């Protein structure tokens, strides 16, 4: 058993640092951008043609929150190649596994995180907007200098939890042949006929990763809280 662990652990860790962590980080980065834009669109008071954009943002959030992540991965990787549009995508949309994973995880994260950001911005008292306007600040200046810093303190814990969940959800990327940790553990288990040992080992590695991220989360929460109290 210890010999299997000794030979398998480096392969699992290599897959974790080469694919699992980068996949989670890149997806979460783009997901936050999508989430912020979506939240601001849904919070906007613009009317007219802009209402169609708000409806689209609402539909996007509903769609990705209402369907399983695994199904979304299959649609993006296996389904889009069959989406043939003459003059635009005559041969369908074919993505590399890693790219398909980033696209899917980013869109999924964006849908969930947009609700977190929207709620955090809405939690800031309206008086903050009025105070900023009273000293001549534009809405954009008020948003970035006053509202976002306060909303960040509210949004940080759930967003951190979303990132930790995303790290674990990357194991689903094995279904589209991305060589992340779980996929590697499956291949090793198929070779040494020790599925219980291999899956337990990869579970422990995920536990270590999430524990480290949880410690970082608590540190950031304390640091951000102290900075806001000082300011």
TrEMBL record:
Keywords: Amino-acid transport, Cell membrane, Membrane, Transmembrane, Transmembrane helix, Transport
Domain ABC transmembrane type-1, residue spans: 17-217
Pfam families: BPD_transp_1
TM helices/strands, residue ranges: 20-41, 62-83, 196-220
Domain of life per record: Bacteria
InterPro entries (UniProt xref): AA_ABC_transptr_permease_3TM, ArtM/GltK/GlnP/TcyL/YhdX-like, MetI-like, MetI-like_sf
Lipid bilayer topology: Multi-pass membrane protein
The UniProt record lists the keyword Cell membrane: yes
Localization: Cell membrane
CDD domains: TM_PBP2
UniProt family annotation: Belongs to the binding-protein-dependent transport system permease family.
UniProt name for this protein: Amino acid ABC transporter permease
Naturally occurring in which organism (per UniProt): Limosilactobacillus fastidiosus
